Amino acid sequence: MNQPILDTVTAETTPRAQGFAMPAEFAPHDACWMLWPQRPDTWRYGAKPAQQAFAEVACAIAESETVFVGVNDDQYENARNQLPAHIRVVELSSNDAWMRDMGPTFLTHPDGRLAMVDWVFNAWGGLKGGLYFPWDKDKRIRTKIAEMLGIPRFEAPVVLEGGAIHVDGEGTLLTTEECLLNPNRNPGMSRDEMEQVLGDTLGIDKVIWLPRGCHLDETDGHVDNLCCFVAPGQVALTWCDDDADPQAAISREALAVLEAATDARGRPLTVHKLPQPGPLYIAEDEASGLDRLNSSHPRQPGDRMAGSYVNFYIGNSVVVMPFLDPAHDEAAWGILQGLFPDKQVVGVPAREILLGGGNIHCITQQQPKAPRA
What we know:
- It is a single chain.
- By secondary structure, the chain is an alpha/beta fold.
- It is 24% helix and 23% strand.
- Strand 15 (313-314) and strand 16 (318-323) form a beta hairpin.
- The longest helix has 15 residues, at 48-62.
- The radius of gyration is 19 Å and the shape is globular.
């Protein structure tokens, strides 16, 4: 059903005022959206190793729901031949492949309608610490998907990436001050002002602010690499026991906030700790094969990567998690399988994705199933 595209939002026309809200990731999906990697200053060796990793993620999710992969025209034939026929390849140009952040945040309505939020995107900081320039193609992705699906698109007045937020579908949102209140995103904006925008746009009632994201996360502290909802009242948190590792203090700090918090319905939170992989560092051979451009984030041998098992995707019948460290993969898999007993937890080798700066949650975006009218 085609619906009008909404380009301006007033107090009376906010998504919340119209009855829309963002559902939890663990709610039912109609589809998952991804993008195809090809950027030569992000992905080594012409992105061929990354393309293989992305294809494995797409195939794992496609066991659970329809998967759309957006591809630049010059990579369309390559992607179509690498991906199985049941994965839908569509021409959707981008500057890079992080669909969680440049793609839409979907909303649902109790009457069965679907809509999306079009946040302002500035490549994780714009000209003050952003990861590349330009990002003109990325900014058009949400508009294009809205046109493809024939759904309303609400333009939001703040810079925000999808990886910066996680919701429980019952009125609670997780985020970090490091990201959403960063001067390179929304300078001068207060917590109260941001909470008002989040409430009006996503239909949430309470924001739980964690101070920081994972150590050296180049997204300026996206919450989806540190902590996420796995069910109402339950969160997974990346954990480090080594006091000499800067991540240990970040995780303890987050735990203190979470244990003192209640959700929008007044429930205390149960925190499930996921061990941190590594620490993981870029090897000499992994830093080779990249184009070196002044307009993009440098990736050097010895740089620490912000690896995290929390960066997984919750599908209808599967949970797709990154395998990053043989010393911890099995333990992390076991914890997640215990948290999702009704789903199959699938581990995908994901170091190539991490080398680009993110992981499985970062390259995916769920399209929720709208409730029946």
